[in-house]
C-alpha cells in the first residue's frame, strides 16, 4: 500500500523528549516500511525516518520555541502539502486531530484518523460536522467517552511499546519482591493537574519514599507548577525536568513504582506500558483506559482514590517484574501495525467517507 502518515508538528518523529503521539507514529511508520509498504511521513524536518519525509517546519515547534498561536499556520501548510500530493496515496492516516478534518473530507483517496487526545467541547462540533469520516480509537474507554454513537469508529488499536524499552537480560519468573530493593518513586509526564503531579507528591510523602518528577511544564501549566509543586521540592521530592529516551529508561528501571494518579479520562497513556515493559509496577487511579492497560494486584495497584493507593501501597512489594514485562509484551509494535493494516484494507475496500464495518484488533 501507498500510505501517508500525517503527524503533529509539536515534536519530531520520534520525539527527542516528551511526545507520545510522535512516538507511536514513528513506530508505525518504520514497521510499515519494514513490511514493504510505501510510506510518506508528513512531519517536522528533524524527524528520523526511512520513509519519504515531507515537512514545512525544520524542527519541532515546541522545541524550536515557535509561539503557540502560530502552530496552526504550520499545521495548515502541512495539510495543504498533503492535499497537493493526495493522488500518490492509497490511504491517508491522520494523527493531527481536528484541524485536518475539513481537508480530509475533500480528499480523493480513503482516509482514517487516530485521535490521540480526548475530544474537548471547543472542537467537538468540527468532528461532528463530518460524522462519516473513519476514526480509530486507541482504547475502548476512548470510544465510550468520545461520541460513540455519533462518530464513525472503524476499530480500536492500542498503542505499542517498543522492544527497546524491555530489559536486554531476561528476568527470572520466580523472582518475587524485586521492588523492595528500589528506593524511589517516579512521576513521568506533563507536570499538571490532569496528570496528578501534586497527588504523586502526596503519595510519596505518605509512604515515606523519595519522588523523582520527570516531565515538561507547558506554559498553560506554569501557574499550577508555581502554586502546587515548586514549594514541595525538598525532603526527597525532586524535579529533574524533561528527559531523553535513555534517561527515561534508567528512571523506569530503578524506580520502586511509577505513580499515576491521573485526574482525567486517560485515553491510553504510554507511561503505563513503558513502565511495565521496564519491569516496574504502577500505582494508578482508575480513570479512562487504566484498567484496560493495567491488571490490579498482578502488575499494578489500581484504586478509586489517592487515600486507597496510599493504604494499599505495600502490595507493590508482592508484584513480580517478570509479570509486568510479560503483560507489556501484549502491546507490541507488530500487533499494533497488523491491526492498522487490517483497518486500512477495510477502509480502502469500502471507499473513502462511507460507513464501514468495525474492524477487529
Description:
With 361 residues, the chain is of the alpha/beta class. The protein has two domains: 178 residues, Glycogen Phosphorylase B (Rossmann fold, 3-Layer(aba) Sandwich); 166 residues, Rossmann fold, CATH 3.40.50. The protein is 33% helix and 15% strand. The chain contains 13 helices and 13 strands. A seven-stranded parallel beta sheet has the order 3-2-1-4-5-6-7, sandwiched between helices. Strands 10-9-8-11-12-13 form a six-stranded parallel beta sheet, sandwiched between helices. α7 links the parallel β9 and β10.
SS elements, strand count: 13
What's the number of structural domains?
2
Low-confidence segments, given as residue ranges, are 173-177, 354-361
CATH superfamily of the largest domain: Glycogen Phosphorylase B
Strand order of the largest sheet: 3-2-1-4-5-6-7
Which term fits the overall shape? globular
Going by helix content, strand content and strand pairing, the class is alpha/beta
Beta-strand percentage? 15-25%
Which secondary structure elements does this structure contain, and how are they paired or packed?
Elements (H helix, E strand, L loop, with lengths): L1 E5 L13 H15 L3 E5 L9 E3 L16 H14 L6 E4 L6 H4 L6 E4 L6 H8 L5 E4 L2 H6 L6 E5 L28 E4 L8 H10 L4 E4 L7 H8 L7 E5 L3 H10 L2 E4 L9 H8 L4 E4 L4 H4 L6 E4 L2 H6 L9 H8 L4 H18 L11
Parallel strand pairs: 1-2, 1-4, 2-3, 4-5, 5-6, 6-7, 8-9, 8-11, 9-10, 11-12, 12-13
Helix pairs in contact: 1-13, 9-12
How would you briefly describe this protein structure?
With 361 residues, the protein is an alpha/beta fold. Helix content is 33%, strand content 15%. The strands form two sheets. The chain has a seven-stranded parallel beta sheet with strand order 3-2-1-4-5-6-7, sandwiched between helices. The protein has a six-stranded parallel beta sheet with strand order 10-9-8-11-12-13, sandwiched between helices.
Amino acid at each position: 500500500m501507498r500510505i501517508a502518515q500525517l503527524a503533529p508538528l509539536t515534536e519530531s518523529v520520534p520525539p527527542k523528549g516528551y511526545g507520545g503521539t510522535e512516538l507511536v507514529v514513528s513506530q508505525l511508520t518504520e514497521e510499515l516500511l519494514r513490511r514493504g509498504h510505501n510510506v510518506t511521513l508528513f512531519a517536522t524536518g528533524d524527524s528520523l525516518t526511512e520513509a519519504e519525509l515531507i515537512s514545512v517546519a525544520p524542527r519541532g515547534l515546541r522545541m524550536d520555541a515557535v509561539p503557540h498561536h502560530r502552530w496552526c499556520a504550520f499545521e495548515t501548510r502541512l495539510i495543504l502539502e498533503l492535499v497537493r500530493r493526495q493522488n500518490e496515496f492509497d490511504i491517508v492516516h491522520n494523527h493531527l486531530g481536528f484541524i485536518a478534518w475539513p481537508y480530509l473530507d475533500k480528499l480523493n483517496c480513503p482516509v482514517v484518523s487516530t485521535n490521540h487526545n480526548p475530544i474537548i467541547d471547543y472542537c467537538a462540533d468540527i468532528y461532528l460536522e463530518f460524522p462519516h469520516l473513519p476514526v480509530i480509537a486507541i482504547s475502548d474507554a476512548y470510544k465510550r467517552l468520545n461520541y460513540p454513537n455519533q462518530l464513525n469508529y472503524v476499530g480500536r488499536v492500542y498503542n505499542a511499546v517498543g522492544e527497546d524499552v524491555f530489559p536486554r537480560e531476561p528476568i527470572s519468573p520466580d523472582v518475587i519482591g524485586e521492588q523492595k530493593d528500589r528506593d524511589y518513586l517516579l512521576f513521568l509526564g506533563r507536570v499538571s493537574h490532569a496528570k496528578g503531579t501534586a497527588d504523586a507528591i502526596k503519595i510519596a510523602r505518605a509512604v515515606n519514599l523519595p519522588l523523582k518528577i520527570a516531565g515538561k511544564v507547558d506554559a498553560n501549566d506554569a501557574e499550577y507548577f508555581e502554586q502546587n509543586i515548586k514549594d514541595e521540592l525538598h525532603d526527597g521530592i525532586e524535579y529533574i525536568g524533561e528527559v531523553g529516551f535513555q534517561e527515561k529508561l534508567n528512571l523506569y528501571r530503578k524506580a520502586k513504582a511509577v505513580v499515576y494518579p491521573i485526574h482525567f479520562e486517560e485515553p491510553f497513556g504510554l507511561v503505563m506500558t513503558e513502565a511495565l515493559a521496564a519491569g516496574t509496577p504502577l500505582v494508578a487511579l482508575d480513570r479512562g483506559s487504566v484498567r484496560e492497560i493495567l491488571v490490579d494486584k498482578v502488575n499494578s495497584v489500581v484504586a478509586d482514590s489517592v487515600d486507597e493507593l496510599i493504604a494499599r501501597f505495600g502490595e507493590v512489594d508482592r508484584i513480580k517484574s517478570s509479570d509486568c514485562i510479560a503483560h507489556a509484551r501484549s502491546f507490541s509494535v507488530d500487533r499494533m501495525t497488523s491491526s492498522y493494516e487490517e483497518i486500512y484494507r477495510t477502509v480502502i475496500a469500502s471507499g473513502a467517507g462511507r460507513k464501514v464495518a468495525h474492524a477487529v484488533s
